[in-house]
Write a structure and sequence with these properties.
The complex is a heterodimer of chains A (about 140) and B (about 210). Helix content of chain A is about 80%, strand content about 0%. With about 140 residues, chain A is an all-alpha fold. With about 210 residues, chain B is an all-alpha fold. Chain B has a domain of about 110 residues: RNA polymerase sigma factor, region 2, helix turn helix motif (Rna Polymerase Sigma Factor, Chain: A, Orthogonal Bundle). Chain B is elongated and about 60 Å long. The N terminus of chain B is likely disordered. The interface between A and B is large, with 33 and 54 residues.
Chain lengths: ~140, ~210
């Protein structure tokens, strides 16, 4: 009990010294007076205001750019989604139909092209040689 | 908590009153309206009326003249861009509104300095430590000039060890002699937060003092 009371008394002493210290720290009228009457202080305030105004304008430009971008991004995303949807479901001719093997390999054509592109009737090297040789033989015979 | 209602013994109420205003002087609210309307010269009038007050607030927290000038400049710059938010119809006068900006600017600067502790944390000298012990022992302050200088130097070193919030509330209570409700109005804190903050600030300062005793 006595110890507590003693400790409280010490705390009160410290609080009193603490108040003195805070007041001593705040006693700075001379410097404050000279600072407030400093030459060109208002000119410096005006310069700072001008700099701050410039900074804010630059910030506003960025902000407006960001605002535009913020509005543009969802719009662009939406148009991309719509385009993709149209691509998938909108067309009458499916992808597979538009690239038919018959067209690619010219199945409806006749002649050399048909022979070249038809996988089922590919000529072997021997048959090709026979055809050439017989072609040469027929040509000589006709002479 | 009743300690917070105390008025400091040596508090000089003439230090920080609103600037003297005669009946013929144009009210601040009208000048603010002129600035809003684009009259740049009117802002100089506001500046001349209130710069001393702002400098004295800055002087509570900072000792160097350059720092005080910087706070004055920053406060008026912030006030210029925030003039639209000031309404003369509200309870707060222009002087009180400007003081609030000044306190906030000081608080921001204290926080900035606190982030660079190497610039503020200097050691307490033997003289200062002796002065501190004498203060605790003798139950009274030596009023001589040398003692005042030691006290000022020591005060700066000790208070730099407190958090900006603690320092702010202690200066407002002990140096400005403001009441809890006035501090609440200036800081936008609730009165109960001010009381709690003041209680913690006193405890922090006691701990700092105990280290050097």
């Amino acid at each position: 009990m006595f110890g507590k009371k003693k400790h409280r008394g010490f705390d009160e002493q410290l609080d009193r010294v603490g108040r003195e210290i805070v007041r001593a720290s705040a006693k700075n009228e001379t410097e404050a007076e000279s600072a407030s009457s400093a030459p060109f202080l208002y000119a410096r305030v005006r310069a700072r205001i001008a700099a701050e105004r410039k900074r804010r304008e630059a910030g506003e430009n960025w902000l407006s750019l960001l605002t535009v971008a913020r509005r543009a991004v969802p719009a662009m995303a939406l148009s991309a989604v719509i385009a993709f949807g149209v691509f998938l479901f909108g067309g009458n001719t499916p992808f597979e139909q538009s690239f038919d093997d018959d067209i690619l390999f010219a199945a409806n054509e006749t002649g050399v092209g048909r022979v070249v592109f038809d996988d089922t009737d590919v000529l072997s090297n021997d048959e090709m040689l026979d055809t050439i040789m017989s072609g040469n033989g027929e040509a000589e015979a006709s002479r | 908590m009743d300690e917070m209602a105390d008025t400091p013994d040596n508090f000089d109420p003439t230090i920080l009153p609103s600037p003297p205003s005669s009946s013929s002087e144009v009210p601040d609210v009208e000048i603010v309206a002129r600035v809003r309307a684009g009259d740049e010269a009117a802002f100089e009038e506001l500046f001349n009326r209130h710069r001393r007050r702002v400098a004295l607030i800055a002087g509570r927290f900072f000792r160097q003249r350059e720092q005080i000038e910087d706070i004055v400049q920053e406060t008026f710059t912030k006030a210029y861009f925030a003039l639209d938010s000031f309404s003369g119809e509200q309870a707060m006068s222009f002087a009180a509104w400007l003081s609030r900006i000044a306190f906030n600017t000081c608080y921001d600067e204290l926080r900035r300095i606190k982030r660079h502790p190497e610039s503020t944390m200097s050691n307490v000298s033997e003289d200062e430590s002796a002065w501190l012990q004498e203060q605790v022992r003798d139950d009274g302050a030596g009023a001589d000039v040398e003692s005042a200088i030691v006290a000022r130097d020591l005060a700066g070193k000790l208070l730099s060890r407190l958090s900006p919030e603690d320092r702010m509330v202690l200066v407002m209570l002990d140096a400005e002699g403001m009441s809890v409700s006035e501090i609440a109005q200036q800081t936008d804190w609730s009165p109960s937060k001010v009381k709690v903050r003041a209680h913690r600030a006193r405890a922090s300062l006691r701990r700092v003092l105990e280290k050097f005793l």
